[in-house]
Structure formats: C-alpha cells, structure tokens
Recover the amino acids of this structure.
C-alpha cells in the first residue's frame, strides 16, 4: 500500500496493481525461502512504500530479502532485483519515475545471483527482439551489483550481532 | 489495540498514574523522548518523521491547485488522511485498520479545521475561484500509544517546511489568469506560528495522564483531545472513548493540556528555528 508516493495524494486502497505486486513478491519468495523448515506455519511479509520514484517492485524485493535475513529466516540464496529500459540502443539500469513515464520497454528481473537463475521476469510495453539478449545480460549484471551491496549489509549485521556475544566472525 | 494485561498489571499501572509515578518513572505530565526529522520525502512539498517512544509517524504534504469551496471562497483547503501501515501490526492488513484510521482522520481533521485559527487565507490564490489544497498524508509506521499527539507534532513540523510554488496572477475581472512558477527555488512558506497541536489526556483510574504507552492506553477509560495554540488558547476540544469524565477533572485536564501544549510548542518552535539555519530553503 503506497500512501505517500509521487503523483498520488490521499488514500490509496488495495487496488489491482498493488495486489498483483503482492502476488509477485509472494511467488518470488516461495521459491527462495526454505519452506520445508516451517511446516504448518505462515510467514507474512508486509511491504510499505514510503515514497515512490520508479522501480518500487525491485526495491520491494531487495528490501524483503534483507528483511527475511534480518528475521533469521533461511533462504536458498539472496534474491536481487533490477529494472532496465532500452533507450536509443543503449540499456539504462534502475530507471526512475520520470524515465518510466517515457513509456519505453520496462524490463524487471529478479535473480538468485549464485546460480544466476531467474526468479521473476516482467516486461511492460514493447521490446525489440534484437535488444533482448543485451538487456538480460546487463540486468543480470545489475542484480549481481546489488547482491554485493546486500551482502555487505548482512556482513555488517553479523559482525554487530556477534560483537554482543564477543565473537569475531570471519567475514 | 488490545494488549493482554493481567488484573495485577492493570492495578499496578493505574496506581502508578494516580500516584504520579508511572511504570517507566515518568510523572503524569511528562512526555517520552521525541525524535523529529524534517524533509524526509523529497517528492512532497513538505514532510516530517516523528518518533515518540515506540510510536513512529510519517507525514507528507502535497499541494495542488483546486477550485474554491462555494461556502468558503476566500480560503484554501486542508485534507488530512490517516493510514495505519500493515507494517505496524498484522491487525492492520486490509480492512483491519479502517476503524482506527477513521478515528484518527476525524480527530485530526477536527483539530485542524477551525478557519478562525488557521491561516487558510494564505492559501487562497484567486478569491472565489482557485486555492491551494494541502493534502496531508499521515502514515503510522509503528503504533505504541498516543497516536494523535505524535501525528500533530509531525504535522506542524511538516507544515513548517512545506514550500509552495509562487503563483503569478495577471489580468482583471473574468480574464484573471494564474501562472504557477516552475522554478523549484521560486517558493514561499506557510506561517505556522498559529497552528495548534493536539494534546490528548487519558483518564486512568481516578487520575489522568498525557502520552500514555500502549499498556496505559489499555487501562484508560476515556480521553480528551485538546487543540492547543502556541499562545496558550484552546482552539478545539473533543472527548472520545468509553468512560465518564467528571467535570472538575475535565477542567484540570484542560489546564494541564494547555500547560503541556505551550511547553511543546516552545520546544518545537526552537528546534524548527534551529533547523531553518541548517537548510538554505
């Protein structure tokens, strides 16, 4: 539910788009979370967009990955997401709202970086077949870059948490 | 918000308030530590984030030019919407938060609807035609008691840093035209020196307290919202919740509310002034 976002004001109730994104996040993490470890239980994920400026779905996925790790829920791998578009033959990664409004192809990829397997793929508008290979390669690289950032944060948390027990983990 | 408390815990909390020494050591008139951050949402005209104890609120203000209200053609409009995020509690998923949100929206709108106290005249662009409408979105990220007061403190801070584009009005009579400035530095700010703050006093046992924690709210029987202006005047008042309040106690509550309100206004204004010297706009 995005209340304070770019163009909209006032109250936004659960509309179709929000429900769709919710289902997308659910499907993504059903693939990534080790559900066998939690028989007969339910893991609820709540995502709140504080401010929207393009790429909300990707940020939601990256944030959920970190939140699940913070909660101590075992994952098969990180899930990193990145959005891209093609403009005048070059690929632009992580587009903002202004760039999205141009209505060029909007390509979103969520990837598990270690195996480089694609968990989610969404394409809006039209993308020429010639560009497809390039876009997929560069977006996967974008996801790999995000994984580096997420990893850094997780290692920071681990060191902090371990310091409370006076352990120095090797990270 | 139902918190599970045993009979002994309830007795302990009520006794504490009655003896002016609450479970966390505060007196009945003491507020918890307030953390305020302004201009946290760059896409809005004005914003603030306020944290009071466990309660955390995010306020964003967006302005748009609208047609003037037929009954009030010389003033602008203020529309407040409250939203409880599902992140605050699983109870708030879907329609679960509707009752609380309605309550919050109504009370906040009530505190901030007095045309005599609020400088809404400033928001008028073309009398009888167009005015600014400030859409205030209040988002509760965490709920830990005393939601109304935190929201109003954050609202005042957000209004303080709200920038509105300058409008150039040209022409005469029917042909009046207005041009909204495109330049992000061609802006003006509202005068918030006369905006009220909501102080809520909760009746707990035979006594009352301000800024209760969630457990204390669960033990309370009724509460009074007092809209306090920086001058110490009361702009609005409303009693909510189940429970009877004795008239003499009510007068005491209002007195305390005004005292606490003035103090908060002073401290808030000092901090907002200090902030002004940090930013360029």
């Amino acid at each position: 539910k995005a209340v304070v976002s770019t163009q909209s004001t006032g109250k936004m109730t659960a509309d179709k788009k929000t429900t769709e994104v919710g289902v997308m996040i659910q499907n993504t993490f059903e693939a990534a979370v080790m559900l066998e470890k939690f028989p007969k239980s339910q893991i609820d994920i709540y995502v709140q967009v504080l401010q929207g400026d393009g790429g909300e779905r990707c940020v939601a996925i990256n944030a959920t990955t970190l939140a699940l790790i913070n909660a101590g829920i075992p994952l098969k791998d990180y899930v990193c997401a990145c959005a891209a578009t093609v403009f005048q033959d070059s690929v632009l990664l992580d587009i903002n709202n202004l760039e999205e409004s141009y209505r060029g192809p909007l390509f979103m990829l969520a990837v598990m970086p270690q195996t480089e397997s694609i968990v989610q793929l969404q394409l809006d508008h039209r993308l020429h077949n010639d560009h497809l290979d390039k876009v997929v390669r560069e977006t996967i690289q974008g996801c790999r870059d995000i994984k580096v950032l997420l990893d850094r944060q997780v290692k920071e948390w681990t060191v902090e948490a371990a310091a409370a027990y006076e352990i120095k983990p090797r990270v | 918000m139902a918190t599970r408390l045993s009979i002994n815990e309830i007795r302990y909390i009520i006794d504490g308030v009655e003896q002016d020494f609450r479970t966390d050591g505060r007196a009945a008139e003491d507020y918890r530590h307030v953390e305020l951050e302004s201009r946290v949402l760059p896409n809005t005209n004005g914003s603030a984030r306020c944290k009071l104890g466990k309660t955390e609120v995010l306020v964003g203000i967006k302005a748009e030019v609208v047609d003037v209200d037929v009954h009030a053609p010389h003033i602008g409009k203020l529309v407040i919407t409250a939203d409880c995020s599902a992140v605050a509690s699983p109870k708030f998923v879907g329609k679960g938060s509707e009752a609380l949100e309605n309550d919050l929206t109504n009370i906040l709108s009530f505190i901030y609807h007095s045309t005599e106290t609020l400088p809404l005249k400033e928001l008028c662009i073309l009398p009888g035609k167009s005015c600014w409408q400030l859409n205030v979105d209040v988002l509760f990220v965490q709920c830990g008691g005393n939601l109304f007061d935190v929201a109003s403190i954050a609202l005042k801070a957000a209004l303080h840093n709200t920038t509105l584009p300058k409008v150039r009005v040209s022409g005469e009579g029917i042909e009046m035209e207005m041009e909204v400035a495109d330049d992000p530095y061609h802006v003006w700010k509202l005068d918030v020196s006369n905006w009220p703050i909501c102080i809520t006093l909760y009746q707990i046992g035979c006594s009352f307290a301000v800024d209760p924690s969630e457990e204390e709210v669960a033990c309370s029987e009724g509460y009074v919202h007092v809209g306090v202006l920086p001058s110490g005047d009361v702009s609005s008042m409303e009693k909510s919740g189940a429970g009877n309040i004795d008239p003499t106690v009510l007068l005491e509550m209002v007195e305390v509310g005004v005292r606490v309100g003035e103090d908060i206004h002073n401290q808030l204004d000092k901090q907002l002034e200090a902030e002004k010297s940090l930013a360029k706009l």
In short: Confidence is low (pLDDT under 50) at residues 1-13 of chain A. Residues 53 and 80 of chain A are 19 Å apart (CA to CA). Chain A has four helices and four strands.
